[in-house]
Design goal:
3-stranded mixed sheet
Length: 108
């Protein structure tokens, strides 16, 4: 990956600031590929790993979710490794919770 990360500063609390990574779709896809196959990891794990990798305090949760939906439509990365099929967000993925369960089972 040779793209430059976008890191924005935002207010956190009354007098503090926080650096927020705005990841690209490719950054999220690469992190998904690094997730253990056949296991359900947490979306938060992806966000923390991306923030740490690029030197930010946090990673934008809304951007990551948007990219996950797009990745599920394109089929470019194993999104099912981080989307819990029992959570409402899973219904936004192509194939829904059932596809996520099937893909996780196929990887085991």
């Amino acid at each position: 990956m040779n793209e430059l990360p976008v890191i924005k500063t935002r207010r956190k609390g009354r007098s503090l600031t926080q650096s927020m990574l705005i990841p690209s779709e490719e950054m999220v896809a690469e992190a998904l590929r690094a997730a253990p196959p056949g296991e359900l990891s947490d979306i938060g794990w992806i966000r923390q790993a991306l923030a740490r990798e690029h030197g930010a305090d946090a990673c934008c949760p809304v951007t990551v979710q948007r990219h996950l939906v797009q990745i599920s439509q394109d089929g470019t990365a194993p999104f099912w490794r981080v989307v819990d099929p029992d959570r409402p967000f899973a219904r936004r993925m192509v194939g829904g919770p059932e596809r996520i369960r099937q893909q996780l089972a196929a990887e085991k």
